[in-house]
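--- STAGE predict ---
source: upstream dedup step, 1 unique chain passed
mode: sequence only
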Amino acid sequence: MDIFQTPARDGGVPLPRTLSAHLVEHLRRRIITGEYRSGQALREQDIEREFGSSRGPVRESLRMLLQGGLVEYAERRGFRVRTYTVADIEHLYDLRASLEGLVIASLAGKPLTAMVADLHASNLRMEACFVANDIGQYFAENQVFHDRIITETGNRPIAEVMVYVNEVSLPVRYRVLRDALLTRRSLTYHERILGFLEKGDLLAARRETEAHILVNKAAAADLYRA
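--- STAGE serialize ---
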């Protein structure tokens, strides 16, 4: 999985690549990694010049980013990278925790053997990323773990909402990871969550998942407060 690949709106297979999709991938990567700063203007002429594109695909790519929540638009100001207030950050983390908790609850009554095996494999890959100090892939594999659980629920409304909420939160979460030393904390939480899922203890898995999301809430808010 590439965290910088634009997600499908229903959590399924991404659409075939077009010039607009190519531009979205590059612009999205720069927004998530902070190369484009929060509030920075995204001038169509500059993008056209850099990528050798015509106006149409550039505008379409910016509209796609606007739909995904990474970009904002205002009359006479044009497109800008999304800005976040401290309250936005706190609300995002609270919302993600609640939704991830609902995801775990949606596993009730479902056979979990195949999912558990996939989660074990994800944790092994995440461990390898940690050892290699590969922040980008560690970050991506963290999302693989959570996405696999969402897929298992078969709950399309939750999946669609999670796509948007995760997309909007990616620059914040990447900044928290980038500005701190890479730790094994997320992987440790995954191992605990997986242990509870193996036992079929969904209540404990839900509590651990919510704690996993909220553990970085204060640190993220402090970054944007500063």
